[in-house]
Amino acid sequence: MENNLTKTRVQLDRNAWVQAATEVLAEEGISGLRVEVLAKRLKVTKGSFYWHFQDRRDLLMAVLQVWKEGRIRDIVKQTRAEPGRELQQIYHVIDVYSTSRSRRGAMIELAVRDWARRDSDAAAIVAEVDDWRLRCARELFLACGVPMEEASSRCMLLYAYVFGISLMIYDKFDSDVARVKRDIADLIAQSASMKVTS
Prior knowledge:
Blueprint: H1 14-28, H2 35-42, H3 46-52, H4 56-79, H5 86-98, H6 103-116, H7 120-143, H8 148-167, H9 177-197
């Protein structure tokens, strides 16, 4: 006979709290990220939270750290190219980051950037991630023989495009959106391709 007084307690680790916090951040922004909300969502008491974190700020810094590490890992992976294939990798980066990616990922990115406008720790982390983005992309342009100043401009243009297009609703602008995207990719990579073919 089952004892009704015995309940199976869910054991959450620190990562489960960080993942739940990231979901709330994506859905409600930093203002919605409260310990009570997370505990209710995870169906545990607030005491479980304090087993893993000193306070809310400790959780927020963990969320930023996990986001930063994930973004940098992805950036390095997407910008890594075999020697002689840097131009193809530039096109790959443009394609990957300008394609409709997960809505969740875009919502997290926007929430972290909004948070960074009001919080110096979040701003420092976003700046570090953006620095990785720009430096890794610039290395691809430099490997194609593009001069440093132009490589810096092209990698900035690349990310201005991929972030900008993620915020826009453009399906009705042109009947051939795929062609428009190809043309933009060619414009961004143009001088790199000219250096490779010359």
